[in-house]
Design a protein that fits this description.
- This protein is 35% helix and 14% strand.
- The protein is of the alpha/beta class.
- The protein has one domain: Metal-dependent hydrolases (TIM Barrel, Alpha-Beta Barrel).
- The strands form 3 sheets. Strands 9-8-7-4-3-2-1-11 form an 8-stranded parallel β-sheet. A two-stranded antiparallel ribbon has the order 5-6. A two-stranded antiparallel ribbon has the order 10-12.
- α8 crosses α10.
């Protein structure tokens, strides 16, 4: 037998790249929510699969294994755990799950109701150092607005200035999800409840407000991720550019569109709408920077695995010409 000598004009076989499939949109239901989720879903015109209730760690692990997901980033659904104590408790429970199942879970922190910014000991602002410095959250899950009716304030409101400043100072990642805000008109059809028809528009309204209010320009250290491809943001961003400018926005049309490009786009339950993007990119979670990251997002526990697989297949067909798996996609548009 002879020895192998590397020829100087030959390239050695590269080491294989180990890919980690990360699901960034994976809901965690606290025990208090699991107990009432079926009824709560019905009240907003939706149905949580009975087989997913009550939520358990094992049910998530089974779903992850079935879909080839190595790590899921847990988040509390929008509108849940709004008081300081509820939010603190939810964060601690997610932290315990992460500690018990290392390398399978991480979590987006919940800060509760952002309108509570002035409390000295119990406020959304006070939770920020706790969730990052002590619990190790990868970022913060943010509702599109807090409060209801005339008392509601979208996240770009100046009331939240101190929260934005603290998060920006930390270079945080924010995962923005629309709230289940009811319309002033009835649900148009039993199959078209709030999660289907209203939540996407709430995400858009928050994203548009952050742009025209100048928040995306001021807080440049933040990474902003929009759930479900930003809802209706892709379709309405040009409308915002033209008409918000007409209505007196300080940014030009092109500047407004440029700011929309700052967002990252979560593809959960979005299917081929993700193919509108022009550039394939991989989300870079600073807290997970040692890993090779490929994006996947599925919105478990809200829907069944069969529904998730339909959206996956639709998206796979839409980007098939790229010769890459959809799992490598977070999409920047325009």
């Amino acid at each position: 037998m002879g020895c192998y000598h590397h020829h100087p004009h030959q390239h050695p076989t590269p080491h294989p790249i180990i890919m980690m499939i990360i699901d960034i949109h994976h809901h965690y239901f606290p025990p208090s929510l699991s107990a009432i989720k079926a009824t709560q879903s019905q009240s907003v015109g939706f149905r949580t699969p009975p087989e997913n209730l009550p939520w358990t760690v094992d049910s998530s692990l089974r779903a992850m294994d079935s879909l080839g997901i190595q790590l899921a980033i847990l988040s509390v659904p929008a509108g849940v755990a709004e008081t300081f104590d509820q939010a603190k408790g939810a964060n601690e429970l997610m932290y315990q799950i992460v500690q018990q199942h290392k390398n399978r879970f991480a979590f987006w922190a919940c800060l509760g109701d952002w309108r509570d910014v002035k409390g000295k000991k119990k406020s959304a602002l006070q939770l920020i150092p706790y969730v990052f410095d002590q619990l190790g959250a990868v970022g913060v899950a943010v509702s599109s607005s807090y409060g209801s009716g005339l008392d509601a304030k979208y996240i770009g409101d100046d009331l939240y200035e101190s929260i934005w400043s603290e998060l920006d100072a930390r270079g945080a990642i924010l995962f923005i999800h629309g709230t289940q805000t009811p319309s002033s008109t009835p649900i148009p059809h039993p199959t078209l409840g709030l999660p289907i028809t209203e939540v996407p528009h709430e995400t858009f309204k928050a994203a548009a407000q952050l742009v025209v209010s100048g928040k995306t320009r001021r807080f440049l250290r933040l990474d902003l991720v929009l759930a479900h491809m930003g809802g209706s943001t892709l379709a309405l961003a040009p409308r915002v550019a033209g008409l918000a400018r007409y209505m007196g926005a300080s940014l030009s049309e092109d500047e407004i569109l440029s700011e929309f490009r700052r967002y990252w786009w979560d593809v959960a339950l979005s299917g081929s709408s993700a193919s509108r993007g022009k550039q394939a990119i991989t989300i870079k979670f600073r807290s997970l920077r040692s890993l090779t990251k490929i994006l996947q997002s599925i919105s478990f526990v809200a829907v069944s695995l069969n529904t998730i697989r339909w959206f996956d297949g639709d998206l796979e067909k839409a980007i098939k010409s790229t010769r890459q798996s959809w799992r490598a996609y977070a999409v920047q548009t325009f």
